[in-house]
Specification:
Elements lengths: L1 E4 L2 E3 L6 H10 L9 E9 L8 E3 L2 E4 L2 H8 L2 H10 L5 E10 L9 E8 L6 H15 L5 E9 L4 E8 L27 E9 L9 E2 L3
Antiparallel strand pairs: 1-5, 1-6, 2-4, 3-4, 3-5, 3-10, 6-8, 6-11, 7-9, 7-10, 8-9
């Protein structure tokens, strides 16, 4: 499993309706893309309190062949044609978990980056992170969650899809008994809105630790 993301930061006065329309009309094109585990079409908007207007799709690739096919094919070239060539961040996947709200459509995503300390053996640090991730993925409202590592910068990435981070479902915002409707905790990381989810290979991502 490989995680991948590019961020397209747009002008403060950019009409984000253009991005909404783009996803509404093109998002389905990857709904059956070979080798793709899932793609979350993410945005952040200044009108919602974000510091930036941003289009930031996030991918979990089940195969490197699928990732290469996308990057060197017409899908990514469309991004290059419209916005210029963005930096493509990528991480080696180490864990994927389905959450209590797995059957729900995600509304929000969170991304948390954590540096790996120099004094800890990498294997131990990753093993500890995988164990923590398994527990975090069981929180109410979690649709699915992935953990990945960037060995160039020695950084852990936790990416989580949430059914609802607005506290909708219970009057107290704590969440429903079925795990849907809980608010993402403050330490979950940066927040993005999910406009669409393409998940042709989600079932094949597997649960638990990914062997490397």
């Amino acid at each position: 499993m490989h995680a991948m993301q590019y961020e397209i930061t747009l002008p403060a006065d950019y009409d984000m309706g253009i991005i909404h329309e783009r996803v509404a009309t093109r998002g389905h094109l990857l709904d059956a893309f070979p080798g793709l585990g899932l793609k979350a079409y993410l945005i952040r908007e200044r009108k919602d309190g974000s510091p930036v207007n941003q289009y930031a799709p996030f991918y979990l690739w089940a195969t490197p062949e699928g990732m290469n096919s996308f990057l060197w094919g017409p899908g990514f070239q469309g991004i290059v044609n419209d916005f210029g060539r963005p930096v493509v961040q990528h991480w080696t996947g180490v864990s994927y978990e389905e959450g209590p709200a797995a059957a729900s459509a995600p509304r929000t995503a969170t991304r948390r980056r954590t540096p790996l300390g120099e004094g800890v053996p990498p294997g131990e640090a990753v093993a500890d992170a995988v164990a923590r991730h398994a527990g975090e993925a069981r929180r109410d409202g979690v649709v699915a969650s992935a953990l990945a590592v960037d060995p160039r910068h020695w950084e852990l990435l936790a990416f989580t899809l949430w059914a609802d981070t607005d506290g909708v479902g219970d009057a107290d915002g704590v969440g429903d008994a079925d795990g849907v409707g809980a608010e993402a905790p403050a330490d979950a990381g940066e927040r993005f809105r999910v406009l669409h989810l393409s998940a042709p290979g989600r079932d094949g991502l597997g649960a638990g630790r990914r062997r490397w």
